[in-house]
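Problem: given the chain below (340 residues), write out its structure.
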Amino acid sequence: MQKKKWLTTAVTVMAMALLSACGSNGSNNGDSAASPSASASASEASSEEVLSFKMGVEPWVGYAPWWIAAEEGIFEKYGLDVTVVNFNQDSDINAAFASDNIKVANIAAHTAIKMVGNNDLNLNGIVLLDQSRTADAVLATGSVKSVADLKGKKVAFEEGTTSDLLLREALSDNGMTIDDVKVVYMPASDAGLALLSGKVDAAVTYEPYISTVKSKGDVQLIYSGENAPGLISDVAVIKADYLAEHPEVKDKLKQVWDETLAYWNSNQKTGDKIVAEKSGLDAADLPVILEGLDYFTSADQTALADSGDFLKTAGSIQTILTEQKVLDKQVDLEQMFQLK
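Solution.
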C-alpha cells in the first residue's frame, strides 16, 4: 500500500533480490479454538491436493493476518502451501505480480484499479481485507476547523498515495477540487511536522504520525477514512487465469483469513509479536494503528457485496483516479471484484 512506507530501509539490491527469489522455483493470550465449520473445512482440505503459490505483501498492518497464518500453520489446514513474500514498495510487488512471480498480491484498492486500467492485467479482487477509519486523516490547526476552511490554504500530503486520494474525496464532499487549495507535496512522515511548525495549514497523513502530531500540538482532525467508508481499503487480488484454473482458492483464502482473525483475537500477544516483527513497527505503535482499522470477515465482505456499497466506493475511487489523470481507461469494476 503506497502510503504505508513504514520506517524500514531497503536498498535496490535487496528489492532485486526479492524479485529474483520470487522468480525461482519453487485482548488476552489464551488458546483459540476453531469453529466446527472451520474444523470441517480444514479436515476436507487435508484430503485434497495441496495448492502451492506465492503471495506478495508489504509491511503494512492491514496485511498482518497473512503473516500470522503463515507462522501458525493456518494455510496448511486448508490445503494451501503459501509462501508470503515481503516487498518494500508498490513498484516491486506490482512488477512481481505482473510478471507472474507471485499469484496473489495484497494491495490498496486504488492500486488494483490502476493495475487493470493502466496495464491491462486480467485480475480479480477476491478478499476485501481492511479499511482505514481514523488511521488516515486530514489534520489542521488554527482557523481551519473544517474541510470548507481549506479553501486557499496550504495542504501538505504525499502525491499519488492514499493521502492524495483521501484529500480529493474530502474536497469533493464539500463541493471543492484540488485547485481550491495550495498543494505542498511531501512525504506523509514530514507532513505533520510541517503542520506543527506552521509551514502549512493542513496535512494529510496516517498513523502513527497522526497520534504523534496530535500529542505535540493543538491539532484538529477535520476528515478521516471514517467519513468515506471503504475509500482507503486493501484487497487481495489474484490472476484471473489462475483463479479459473483453481476456483477453490478464493474460498480457501477467505477461510484462512477468518480463522486467523479469530486466532489473533484469542492470542493477542502472540499475534502482535509476529506483526511487529514482520512490519518493522514498534509493538507499542500497534494499538493506535489497529484502533483506526477495520478488518473484514467473509460475512462482512458478502454484506458489502450484496448491498452494493463496496462497488459504489470503488466507483468513487475510479472517478478520483480519472480526475487525477492517472487512469488510462475505465475498469469494469463489477467484473474485477469477485468478493462473493
